[in-house]
Amino acid sequence: MALIVQKYGGTSVADIPRIENVARRIIRDREKGHDIVVVLSAMAGETDRLISLALEASDNNPDAREYDVLISSGEQVTISTLALVLNNLGFKARSLLGHQVRVLTDTAHTNARILEIDTSLISRELRNGFIVVVAGFQGVDQDNNITTLGRGGSDTSAVALAAALKADCCEIYTDVDGVYTTDPNIYKKARKLKKITYDEMLELASAGAKVLQQRSVELAKKYEVPLYVKSSFNDDEGTLVTMEDVDMEKEIVSGVTSDKNQAKVTLIRVPDKPGVASRLFTPLSDRGIVVDMIIQNASIEGYTDLTFTVYKKDMREVREILDVVAKDVGAFSIEYDENISKISVVGVGMKSHSGVASRMFVALSKENINILMISTSEIKISCVIEEKYTELAVRVLHDAFGLEQDR
Amino acid sequence: MALIVQKYGGTSVADIPRIENVARRIIRDREKGHDIVVVLSAMAGETDRLISLALEASDNNPDAREYDVLISSGEQVTISTLALVLNNLGFKARSLLGHQVRVLTDTAHTNARILEIDTSLISRELRNGFIVVVAGFQGVDQDNNITTLGRGGSDTSAVALAAALKADCCEIYTDVDGVYTTDPNIYKKARKLKKITYDEMLELASAGAKVLQQRSVELAKKYEVPLYVKSSFNDDEGTLVTMEDVDMEKEIVSGVTSDKNQAKVTLIRVPDKPGVASRLFTPLSDRGIVVDMIIQNASIEGYTDLTFTVYKKDMREVREILDVVAKDVGAFSIEYDENISKISVVGVGMKSHSGVASRMFVALSKENINILMISTSEIKISCVIEEKYTELAVRVLHDAFGLEQDR
To answer: Less packed terminus of chain B by CB within 10 Å, N or C?
Structure first.
C-alpha cells in the first residue's frame, strides 16, 4: 500500500463529466489499497476569467493581496465538486483549502513560495479513510492572507505535498500523455520517453518545452520525489521524471526543443572595460527582465561585440532601457532581432560522450542553417538560428541523434 | 464619526459596473469620516449556479460539508473584486473571508448559526484606515470547516457583525428601496414605511414579505441593532427597522401581506382524545415539515375537526405521511386544499387598539370573500381565503386601514 499524490490540471476538471472521469481514476487506485491525496487546478479557463475580472476591476493595476483572493477562488469549486462526486460514488472524500491544510508561504503575492506544509490534518484524514482533495495553487502567509504560487503553481503544490508527506510518487495528470523527444506538433516522429532525469526536464523546460512548471521539477529534484507525467484522458504509460540511473547513460540525447519567444540584442563595438556588463545588465534585472544567453566576442583593439537574448514580451522595456544605456557605455550601435529562435538538444549522456556539439553543428550546416549564437551547459547545447528554420532544425536534429528509435 | 456596517445583496454586485456603483456609495460615506465594514453576497445568480453544480455532482444528494465549500466560493469573488475597485480608486480596502475574520458557527452545514465573531482583526484594520469587506453567508466551525448560513444568510452576517462590533447602524442595500405597506406589484397605492418595529418586520416576513432574512431581524432585535433597509440603485430614503417608540402607536396597522405558498389540510371527525395532536404533528416535524396555522374546532360528541396549513412544496411528503397517520388516529377522512392563500395585517398598534380583527372581517365580507381559517398573534391577524381573492383582499384591507396615507 502506497501513498500517492495525484495532480489533475484544468482541462482534466473542466466540467462534471471530466471530474467524474477523474473520480473513477482515483477510485481505481483507492481500490488497490493506496492512500490518495489529490491536488486540483481550477476548471480550464476559470483562472483566466478571474484574472480578467481582476484587471477590469483595477484598470489593469490590481492590488496584489486582493488579486490573490480573487484568482484563488477557482480551486475551491473544483475540489469541493470532486469531493461531492467521490462521496456520491460511496467513497469518503474531503476537500481542504490552503488555509485548512496549512500551506504556509512567504508574502510574495501572485508568485509566493511555499515555506512549510503542515501534514497533520491530511495524515489524520488519511488514517480516517478519506481521500483528501487539496486546492492547488494557493497557500496562506503567516498572517493568514491568501497567496498564490504563480502560473502552473498547482504542479508545485502537488510536489511540495508529496515531499512533505513523504509520498511514494507524485503523479501529474495533464492533457499531454508524457514527455516527448520533441514537440509532436512539429515532428510526428517524436517519441514518448519512458524516463527522464530531473535535470533534463529542467533544461527542456528552460528551453521551451512546457509540460511541468519549472519550480515543481526543482522541488521534486531537491526532495527526490519521483514524478510520473501522464494523461488523464487515456491509460497510456506516461513518463517518469527521476534521478539519473545507469540505464540513462545509454541515451546521449533525450530531446530536442525549440523556443520562439526570444529576441536577440547586439551591442556593436563596446569599449572592453571592467564594469560594462554590469552597467548593461543591472538596469534590466532591476526591472525583472530575464536575460537568457549571453555571448561576448574576443576583444579586438579594445572593443568587443556583446550579444544576448531576452524574451520578446519584454522588448519594449528592453529598448527603452538599452537605447539609453548603450550610449552610456559607449557602444557604436545597437541591433535588435526578433526573428530568431532557440534550438536545444538535451541529455545527461552528454556528460560522458563527446562530439554531441559537432554532430549538432554538422546536421544544421548540411541544411545551410546558419548558427547565430551558441551556448552550452553540462547537459544542453543551444543554438540561436533564424526563426524560419525552426521546424526544419528540430526535425534534422531529431534524425541526427536517432531519437525516434526506442532504446 | 460612526461605525457603519453596510450589506449589499447579489443584484447590487452583479457585475463590475454595479460593484463600482457600490464602491462610490461606500466612498461617499467614508469621506464623511465614517468607519465602514461592508458585507457582500455573491453575484446575482452565482449561488444558484453553484447549487446546480453541487446537485449535478451528487445526483441531488450532496454531502453537506462539501456543498458548503462549493457554494461559499461566490462571495470570495465579490469581496476581492470590490476591494480591488476601492484600492484602484485610492481607498485602502481589504477583503476578509469567514475564516480570516473568524466567524465561528455551529456545525450545522447549509444552515449554520453564528456562535461568536472575533472582532479583533476587523477592528485593527479599521484603525489602520482600511475599509473592511467581509464575505457574507459563510463562517467556519471550531475545526475550521467552512459552513454557510442558509438562504439570505448575508443579512444575518451583516447584523451579527454589527452587533459584535457595536456598530451604530446596519444598512441593508437591496433591489427594493424599503419596506412597504403591501407589495407594490399587487397594489400600486402601497406606501413606503419610514419606520417599522422588529416585531412587525418579523411578522411581515413570516406572513410572506421577503425583504430581510427572518433570522437577521431576530438577531437585530436581540442586540438592538438599528437596521436601515434601502436601495443601492437610488438615493431615496429607506425604512428603519428599530425598537418600538411612541410615534409608532399612532399606526394601528403597518402592513398587509399575502402568502400563496401554503396549503390547507383538514382531518374530519377525529376522535378527541389526548395524544392525537402529537401523533399527527410529530412525524411531520421529524421530517422537517413546517406547520403554520393550526385550528381545532370545539369537540362535538367526542369528535373534532382539525385544520392546519403546510407549505405547498412539502405537500407530497405530507400526503405520504398523513394518509397513514390519519387512519391510525381514527379520522373519518382527510382533505387537502392547495387553492388557498393567507392574508395578514400586521401592526404594533393592535396591542393598544381594539376592533382591528372585526374591521378586517367586515372589509372582507363586504366583498363576499369567505374566511376559511383565522389565527391571531399579538400584532398580527391572519386569514386563510380562497387563492383567487388574494389580490382583491390585499387592496380591500389596504384601503380599510387607510394605509396609503402618510402618518
So the answer is: N
Residue contact A97–B69, C-beta within 8 A: yes
A52-83 per-position pLDDT tens digit: 999 999 999 999 999 999 999 999 999 999 99
C-alpha cell belonging to residue B252 = 394601528
Question: What digits encode the pLDDT tens for the residues B14-39?
Answer: 999 999 999 999 999 999 999 999 99
Q: Does B227 touch chain A (CB under 8 A)?
A: no
Q: How far is B240 from chain A (nearest CA, A)?
A: 32
Q: How many whole angstroms separate alpha carbon B291 and alpha carbon B301? A: 27
Side chain identity at A235, as an amino acid letter?
D
User: What's the rounded Cα separation, in Å, for the pair B381 and B345?
Assistant: 5
CB contact under 8 A, A95 and B50: no
Average pLDDT score over residue span A222-249: 88
Instruction: Retrieve residue B270's grid coordinates.
Output: 377525529
User: Quick one: chain B helix, strand, coil %, rounded to 5?
Assistant: 40, 25, 35
- State the cell numbers at B36: 465602514
Residue B333 sits at φ, ψ, to 5 deg, of: -160, 175
**Cβ A57–B144 below 8 Å, yes or no?**
no
Of the pLDDT bands very low, low, confident and very high (cuts 50, 70, 90), residue B302 is: confident
Grid coordinates given for B204 = 411581515
Test the B interface: residue of A66, A87, A140 with most B CBs within 10 Å? A66
* Chain A residues within 8 A of B99 when measuring between CB atoms: 99, 144
- Res. B154: pLDDT tops 90: yes
Q: Which domains does chain A have, with CATH numbers?
A: 3-175 (3.40.1160.10)
In terms of Cα–Cα distance, which of A261, A290, A205 is closest to A387? A261
Burial (0-12, 13-18, 19+ Cβ within 10 Å), B50: buried
B40-79 pLDDT per residue, tens: 999 999 999 999 999 999 999 999 999 999 999 999 999 9
What DSSP designation does A339 have? S
Cα A301 to the chain's mean position, in Å? 43
* B58 interaction partners in chain A (CB closer than 8 Å): 84-85, 87-88
- Gap between the Cα atoms of B32 and B50, Å rounded: 38
Global pTM reads: 0.87
User: Tell me, what amino acid is at B128?
Assistant: N
Sorted by sequence, the CB contacts under 8 Å of residue A271 that are 6+ apart come out as A302, A303, A329, A330
